[in-house]
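# step 3/5: fold
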Amino acid sequence: MRYDHQLLAALRRFGADPAVAGTAKGLSLAGEHGAVWIAAGLAGAGADRVRRRAWLRATALVAGSHLASIGVKRVVRRPRPQLPSAEPLVRTSGRHSFPSSHATSSAAAAIAFGALMARGPLARAVPVVPSVAAAVCLSRLVVGVHYPTDVACGALLGGAMARIGRGWTLGTLPDVPPGPPVPPVPPVPPMPSMSPVPHIPHVPPLPPSLAGVGHD
């Protein structure tokens, strides 16, 4: 786990910048107990009445993923990292580190909410969700309270749970009503047959006496 510790120390040094430290602390606070994602899911349920049940199920899936990560923490019981050169920038609600609950709920929200947004008027905003989720995950390393493997495994756990619950979440979406029936194309009338040209019998030339030949 030496490389895990070294990578954490390198990322923690970015927190020496006050602007980076403030952003990381704000993201960590927003992701505490999955609060930002639960609030986003409830806001989606309130704004999208047609798919309210799907939004509520996706929010419940995010909350369930967060609870699952807490259960894994109590089994693994990995202690929080201790960096001698830098103290953590935020306080934590628990002593155990593996997996990151922030990463678990963020990955679950990125997949669950992203699938809902892709099927509605917010399709253009779909890339925003994974971007914010990645920022929340990275913030836990910058503030120095998780190892990189904590974040990576937490994201895998949240992603797996969102994939498993995808059918349960999207199964409540209303069916798209069928459009009006397409009228059948009328058949093309056949072209009228052209009658054959009547045969003109051969007319013999008039005799000279009748044709006026030889008369003044």
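# step 4/5: annotate
Residues 175-179 have pLDDT under 50 and may be disordered.
# step 5/5: archive (pending)
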